[in-house]
């Protein structure tokens, strides 16, 4: 760690690009605070993964992904509420639609990429496929989705001449990305996986291999790597929440590696994020189970409608926004029966009408969604 060199600046005429040193090298991690944080991160991540085995995590997984999608998008300046990710395009106002589509794409990219891991390893091919989905039909769709860039990009500033940071030239991108893939799968280097993904995320953001969508892709691959290595059985840990709440530190620590060769500070920041988000994840799952038990008691009080209420609520854990028509189809009853059931749950404080309209009303499973909002705003 003491001899770490992040890379070097290469003069490219009127500007200098940064060429990072390959990750595939000899690593000697002799920093005790990092070792202590690594042990703590492993412990809390293991606790989160173990806890997820004791609950029906598939019932709640889409909410975890929706939270990640909205938090990751927020870093880029996109403002979409978590519950809005479950609405259809026609239910989103025109001025919010672009942001909504980007968040929906992130959700689709995560879902599809996790499924792809069953047939594909964590690889540049997987990353390019996820990137292609991220940019599908949204801003940036004409910037070579799914393909590594073939021209120079930059971060900050209006031009290359006054940019805050200029990544490596495009001709170096394929080899640098291949190095990430090789590093991810090397088994003879004895580098802990949490250290590996911290280094991979830093390196990916430094390479900035795409013309657009690098931030979202770089955050997405953290979860993909953890799932691919079996560290998480299901994608339930997302660092975008932590990065968004500490946005200035996130960017400063990434940049400090390049300017001061300070990889230790980046690793400490990243591992602190793992600890905090894993702790919050366990707390959220515990609160979900408490809420579930409490609401089941309320459903029982509905008498004959209790069975239908349970069917409706199980659906709402996966998709927390519903219309009367959806509810009627779900429980196999008339719209009036569904309306009455929803009215009972609304009076009990389980559902909240969110449109304020007279027709085509939508109801939010508010206490459930607010648990994820609380987790997103928590500091440990």
Walk me through the structure.
The structure is a single chain. The chain is mainly alpha-helical and 380 residues long. Strands 3-5-4 form a three-stranded antiparallel β-sheet. A two-stranded antiparallel sheet has the order 1-2. The protein has two domains: 7-283, Fic-like fold (Orthogonal Bundle), CATH 1.10.3290.10; 301-376, Orthogonal Bundle (Arc Repressor Mutant, subunit A). The model has no long low-confidence stretch (mean pLDDT 91). The protein has helices at 32-53, 57-75, 97-116, 124-134, 173-185, 193-207, 214-228, 240-245, 247-260, 263-300, 306-318, 324-331, 335-347, 366-376, and strands spanning 7-12, 15-20, 321-323, 352-353, 362-364. The longest helix has 38 residues, at 263-300.
C-alpha Rg (nearest Å): 23 Å
CATH architecture of the largest domain: Orthogonal Bundle
User: Rough shape?
Assistant: globular
Low-confidence parts: none
Query: Would you state the CATH class of the largest domain?
Result: Mainly Alpha
Strand order of the largest sheet: 3-5-4
CATH domain topology of the largest domain: Fic-like fold
Structural class label: mainly alpha
Number of strands: 5
Please, what is the average pLDDT?
91
Number of domains: 2
CATH homologous superfamily (4th level) name of the largest domain:
Fido-like domain
Please write out the topology.
Blueprint: E1 7-12, E2 15-20, H1 32-53, H2 57-75, H3 97-116, H4 124-134, H5 173-185, H6 193-207, H7 214-228, H8 240-245, H9 247-260, H10 263-300, H11 306-318, E3 321-323, H12 324-331, H13 335-347, E4 352-353, E5 362-364, H14 366-376
Antiparallel strand pairs: 1-2, 3-5, 4-5
Helix pairs in contact: 1-10, 2-3, 2-11, 2-14, 3-4, 3-7, 4-7, 5-6, 6-7, 6-10, 9-10, 10-11, 10-14, 12-13
